[in-house]
Amino acid sequence: MRVLAAASEAFPLVKTGGLADVAGALPAALAAEGIAVTTLLPGYPAVMRAVSGAAEALVLPDRFGPARLLRARAGGLDVLVLDAPRHFDRPGNPYNGPDGEPWEDNGLRFAALGFAAAEAALALGFDALHAHDWQAGLAPAYLRLGAPRRVPSVFTIHNLAFQGQFPPSLLPRLGLPPGAWSLEGLEYFGSVGFLKSGLWYADRITTVSPTYAEEIRTPQGGMGLDGLLRGRAGEVSGILNGLDVAAWDPATDPALAARFSAADRAPRAANRTALQARFGLAEDPAAPLFAFVGRLAWQKGVDLILEALPALLDAGGQLALLGTGEAALEARCRAAAAAHPGRVGAVIGFDEGLARLAYGGADCVLVPSRFEPCGLAQLCALRYGAPPLVARTGGLADTVIDANEMALAAGCATGLQSAPGDAAMLAAAIQRTAALVRDRAAWARIQANALACDVSWRRSAARYAALFREIAAPHG
Questions:
Q1: Does some domain include residue 260?
Q2: Domain of 151?
Q3: pLDDT value at position 475?
Q4: What is the mean pLDDT of the chain?
Q5: E strand spans, 17-142
Q6: Distance CA 290, CA 385 (A)
Q7: pLDDT attached to residue 473
Q8: Helix axes 440-452, 423-438, angle to 10 degrees
Q9: What's the pTM?
Q10: Does 12 sit behind a cis peptide bond, omega within 30 degrees of 0 on the bond before it?
Q11: By the 8 A CB rule, do 140 and 131 touch?
């Protein structure tokens, strides 16, 4: 079976967040299930360099300007690249210009991606389309509205908070029939809703964890789309994200100061020492060492960590903060490090090698998100033996077993959980964690359980494969 995946980013060709990790890792996992995935990506400069000399696969109709699809093998992926220089040959990250602001024509840029995905699915004989997030949200609409043959589609929500809303003046340029502009279509509170398009027109909807699939059908978690999602509840499923465990392997990772495995954890201590040195922390083997890796954003609960910092310090802990994001939070992280030298360190920026060292050297990784569709930080932490402290929400709740009294007695704890959005509860959980870290025997059991977790794509790939076969069967 052949599936076309449409995404705005995929590791290792282009990455700004977890979407890229999923789009980059899922094809190999699906290959083991007999599903051949080709990934359609926009022709950003970095992607075009990676496919230099690629063969032309399809010339596209001139709806959004001259464009063609190039076929190549790059970064371990079978790819189709949307060669449309007008839309993608520009500096900046995939969504924002050099000034950090979104490109004014993002609506047209990603409409072109959705249109290209539908054209490729139809013209190149794919059995199904897998559209990722709002950037590919128009693809199911183009397939459903006026296509000469039926190609079924799956739309995956990676984060409902990012919805791709654009002014109605965009509508005439999309080339969709007038009936698409309605509540039963693209219209979303007076805007053209790209994410809503995917939710409305796709045959099936998935999101990246079972708990998040439940949360988005509530007024509290649905962000204005809960009614639509409740109406389509029979077509919504939560399939947990995984990790590429070959790429994320502490036994082979060159970013670590010392490689280790579940069978031999002793070398891990060298990573702790290296992590303390990189963040300017005192080389204290007894201090519970906490780390945060990710976007410095309200959603991620970074402000909650800073509010709980006195409790962490009172417990004798150290904190390493790594990430970039909201300017105010970046400033607060720097200020915390300046106020507590040797106890708090902050590196503002994106550094994947340093992130891997944090996972491989910290005692505990903090993931106190206010909401989290799935999260990859806690999966990396489990894989690298840093039992995570997570908020009890979304995929975090699905992937970490809290070290409560019963779980400790049963020997099944893999980390800790705390109530989301509550700094006082996070502070209490941090102190509970510090006490467990100091109980070396108890923490060693939790760490062993974390390292034993199967965080691969194996189970989830089987669920995706079954879903693709199910939707393709009536159209085969």
A1: no
A2: 2-242+458-475
A3: 55
A4: 96
A5: 36-42, 55-59, 68-74, 77-83, 128-132
A6: 13
A7: 82
A8: 110
A9: 0.94
A10: yes
A11: yes
- Token readout for 160 is 């409902």
68 and 31, same structural domain?
yes
User: If you ran DSSP here, which 8-state letter would residue 317 be given?
Assistant: -
- Does 300 count as an annotated binding residue? no
d(CA 146, CA 129) in angstroms, rounded, equals 16
190: tokens are: 């007076």
The amino acid at 30: L
Q: How many Å apart are CA 223 and CA 284, to the nearest integer?
A: 45
Contact 117, 83 (CB under 8 A): no
Q: Give me the half-sphere count of Cα atoms (radius 13 Å) on the Cβ side of residue 289.
A: 28
Give the torsion sign (CA, 35, 36, 42, 45): positive
Sign of the four-CA dihedral 340, 342, 344, 345: positive
- pLDDT in the model for residue 83: 98
Shared-domain flag, residues 297 and 232: no
186, part of any domain: yes
Tokens of 10: 């995929």
Residue from 31, 117, 40 nearest 72 by CA: 40
Can you give the length of the chain in residues? 476
- Give residue 35's identity as a one-letter amino acid code: I
Residues 360 and 344 placed together within one structural domain of the fold: yes
Q: Are the C-beta atoms of residues 298 and 327 closer than 8 Å to each other? A: no
pLDDT for residue 474 is more than 80: no
Instruction: For residue range 279-322, list pLDDT tens digits in order.
Output: 999 999 999 999 999 999 999 999 999 999 999 999 999 999 99
